[in-house]
């Protein structure tokens, strides 16, 4: 390794690319990890979840190295790593998971019981998720490598499709999870809230699962225009606050079979102000009786920037009685990436899921990460992919 560089959170509204320590095969508490590998990062993406921290909407500490969407090449491995070799190109699920606890054994890797002393679930470069160093960097350490890492079967093929495969670390499985948990199947009528990268990934997932029609709602015209180009039906939320009526104009019915919330706790209403529960309440309103709602959008237990005291501790004003009366199913929580990423890899490699085009991926250098964060924060209809070593540009 040469000197490492990484994207560092410097406080609300500010990130910097700085020299950071080279990774070592040790846990945040210093315990040596022979089951770990060191990766040369090939690609690492800016995620909307990162933006929540950078906006100051979490309790993230200054100095945190960001980045949980990682694809890399194994350059060093511990003595307990048996299934991987130096030179392998791998996708890193954003979940840090041990593979040994009850949750991991049941494929609930988003809530691993051992990798975070404070709560269930771990992730790279994220607040309250175990202290694992993030991967918006040149090099990163990954623990429990045999369990966590997805090896690509052919190096040349992987590099040809690397801008698609980089989405396997988070947003594609997250969107797919939302669609699966919403019960999307052949002939489903689907509404996705939010036309950002996760919403687009959810919409693409709904299509590949057999949906008859996929509508996607947003206030951002640029994002809606891109969604329309990708074959989804845009719903311009600036036109009305009666979502059911707008859906009825498209499908003939104000209700859908499946709804997916890809917005999360920073949702806004027509007044322009934040209404953190508005999307969840809309989902209950438009989803049919006995329908399902998938919620891949992020909700937090602590939001220091919330508009009211209740929301600061994750307490939202939900019309839950409506959902109960309609016998609806809800599914929340971090996506267990390992449950889906191998199948989604095959869909990419065999040309079934051009996800980089769908989310409008734009490759930029690691050193330009701050510009990417700023553009994304202003609603750019793009998914920014960082290229720490120039390998994507070369490919």
In brief:
The chain is of the alpha/beta class and 395 residues long.
Structure description:
With 395 residues, the protein is an alpha/beta fold. It folds into two domains: 4-170 and 336-394, Medium-chain alcohol dehydrogenases, catalytic domain (Quinone Oxidoreductase, Chain A, domain 1, Alpha-Beta Complex), CATH 3.90.180; 171-331, NAD(P)-binding Rossmann-like Domain (Rossmann fold, 3-Layer(aba) Sandwich). 27% of the residues lie in helices and 22% in strands. It is built from 15 helices and 17 strands. It has helices at residues 48-54, 102-105, 145-148, 155-160, 162-165, 171-181, 197-208, 221-229, 243-251, 278-286, 320-325, 341-349, 355-358, 369-377, 391-394; strands spanning 4-11, 14-20, 37-45, 70-77, 89-92, 95-96, 122-123, 139-142, 150-151, 189-193, 213-218, 233-236, 256-261, 287-294, 329-331, 361-365, 383-387. Helix 11 (320-325) links the parallel strand 14 and strand 15 (329-331). The longest helix is centred in the middle third of the chain and has 12 residues, at 197-208. The radius of gyration is 20 Å and the shape is globular. The mean pLDDT is 96.
Give the topology, please.
Elements: E1 4-11, E2 14-20, E3 37-45, H1 48-54, E4 70-77, E5 89-92, E6 95-96, H2 102-105, E7 122-123, E8 139-142, H3 145-148, E9 150-151, H4 155-160, H5 162-165, H6 171-181, E10 189-193, H7 197-208, E11 213-218, H8 221-229, E12 233-236, H9 243-251, E13 256-261, H10 278-286, E14 287-294, H11 320-325, E15 329-331, H12 341-349, H13 355-358, E16 361-365, H14 369-377, E17 383-387, H15 391-394
Parallel strand pairs: 10-11, 10-13, 11-12, 13-14, 14-15, 16-17
Antiparallel strand pairs: 1-2, 3-4, 3-8, 3-17, 4-5, 5-9, 6-7
Domain Alcohol dehydrogenase-like C-terminal: 197-264
Domain Alcohol dehydrogenase-like N-terminal: 35-153
Organism: Celeribacter ethanolicus
């Amino acid at each position: 390794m040469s000197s490492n560089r990484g994207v560092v959170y410097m406080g609300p509204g500010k990130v910097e690319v700085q020299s950071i320590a080279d990774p070592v095969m040790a846990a945040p508490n210093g315990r040596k990890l022979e089951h770990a590998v060191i990766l040369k990062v090939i690609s690492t993406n800016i995620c909307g979840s990162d933006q929540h921290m950078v906006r100051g909407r979490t309790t993230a500490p200054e100095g945190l190295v960001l980045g949980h969407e990682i694809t890399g090449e194994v350059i060093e491995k511990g003595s307990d790593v048996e299934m991987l070799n130096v030179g392998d190109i791998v996708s890193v699920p954003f979940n840090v998971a041990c593979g040994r606890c009850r949750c991991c054994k049941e494929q609930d890797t988003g809530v691993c019981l051992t990798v975070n002393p404070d709560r269930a679930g771990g992730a790279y470069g994220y607040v309250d998720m175990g202290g694992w160093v993030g991967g918006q960097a040149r090099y990163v350490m990954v623990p429990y490598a045999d369990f966590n890492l997805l090896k690509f079967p052919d190096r040349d093929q992987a590099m040809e499709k690397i801008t698609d495969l980089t989405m396997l670390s988070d947003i594609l499985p997250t969107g797919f999870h939302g669609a699966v948990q919403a019960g999307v199947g052949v002939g489903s009528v689907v509404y996705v809230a939010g036309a950002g990268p996760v919403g687009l990934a959810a919409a693409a997932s709904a299509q590949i699962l057999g949906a008859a029609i996929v509508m996607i709602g947003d206030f951002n015209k640029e994002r809606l225009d891109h969604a329309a180009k990708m074959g989804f039906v845009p719903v311009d939320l600036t036109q009305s606050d009666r979502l059911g009526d707008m859906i009825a104009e498209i499908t003939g019915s104000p209700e859908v079979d499946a709804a997916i919330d890809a917005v999360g706790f920073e949702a806004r209403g027509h007044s322009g102000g934040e209404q953190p529960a508005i999307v969840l309440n809309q989902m209950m309103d438009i989803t049919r009786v006995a329908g399902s709602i998938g919620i891949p959008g992020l909700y937090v237990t602590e939001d220091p920037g919330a508009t009211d005291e209740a929301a600061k501790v994750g307490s939202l004003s939900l019309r839950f009685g409506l959902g109960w009366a309609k016998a609806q199913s809800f599914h929340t929580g971090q996506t267990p990436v390992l449950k889906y990423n191998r199948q989604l890899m095959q869909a990419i490699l065999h040309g079934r899921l051009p996800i980089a085009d769908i989310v409008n991926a734009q490759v930029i250098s690691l050193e330009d990460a701050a510009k990417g964060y700023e553009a994304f924060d202003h609603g750019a209809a793009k998914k920014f992919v960082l290229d720490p070593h120039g390998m994507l540009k070369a490919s």
